[in-house]
Specification:
Layout (H helix, E strand, L loop, with lengths): L8 H8 L5 H20 L4 E3 L2 E8 L17 E8 L1 H8 L6 E2 L2 E2 L4 E8 L5 E2 L3 E2 L4 E7 L11 E5 L5 E3 L3 E4 L3 E5 L7 E9 L7 E4 L4 E3 L2
Parallel strand pairs: 8-16
Antiparallel strand pairs: 1-2, 2-3, 4-5, 6-7, 6-9, 9-13, 10-11, 10-14, 12-13, 14-15, 14-16
């Protein structure tokens, strides 16, 4: 199995938290890369949020008094990564995939939706006026806002679609979209369209509707 689209972690980090700059993200990842290699090389078992990384020695000897000599015979030092059980379970739970010819594509999934109050808190009451913020949480929800085919769409009962043009955040697991001005009051389905591959678009429609009041 392989993914058609690579993930730019720098972009995802700064999109996930708007207070982190690109320079901050690059610096932290650079330090993490250096320190993990350093301590694994010294023989430590390094704990990361989702697992442990460490070196492991393998090989056999003909006599008990023979020493371990990396590179000779079948003596080898290999680097091992062991996932934490909860991290591995989270990665495979509700994993999005679809067979598509010779490969797989990432399918967007809308899991939760909230209105964002003026104090920044989330509300389960999905009622919006023009300019208020809709927060969408899910998997593989990132998209290219410059492509008019992609994005968040509000679908009226007569199937008229209104594309959201203004966003506060576009990340792989969270979208913050502003309700367009001039939209008619009523109930709307929320449709998300992404383009994870080079040729096809993927969409997801939430089973929960939102209400625009003005």
């Amino acid at each position: 199995m392989y993914w058609i689209k690579k993930i730019d972690f720098i972009k995802e980090i700064i999109s996930y938290n708007s207070t982190i700059t690109e320079a901050d993200a690059r610096a932290v990842l650079s330090v993490l890369n250096d320190r993990v290699k350093h301590f694994v090389n010294l023989g430590y078992k390094v704990e990361l949020p989702f697992g442990w990384m460490f070196n492991k020695a393998n090989g056999t000897v003909a006599k008990l008094n023979e020493g371990f000599m990396p590179g000779s015979s079948n003596h080898r030092i290999t680097t091992v990564f062991k996932f934490k059980d909860d991290a591995a379970d989270e990665m495979i739970k509700n994993a999005a995939y679809r067979q598509a010819g010779s490969g797989y594509v990432l399918i967007p999934v809308i899991k939760e939706m909230y209105s964002v109050l003026k104090n920044g808190k989330e509300s389960d009451i999905l009622e919006f006026d023009s300019g208020s913020m809709l927060r969408i949480k899910g998997k593989n929800v990132s998209f290219d806002a410059d492509d008019e085919v992609q994005g968040v769409f509000l679908v009226a009962s007569d199937k008229t679609e209104i594309r959201v043009a203004s966003y506060n955040r576009i990340g792989s697991s969270i979208i913050e979209a502003y309700i367009p001005s001039g939209i008619d009051a009523g109930n709307y389905e929320v449709k998300l369209v992404t383009k994870p591959g080079t040729e096809r678009y993927e969409k997801c429609v939430s089973s929960v509707t939102v209400t625009v009041t003005a």
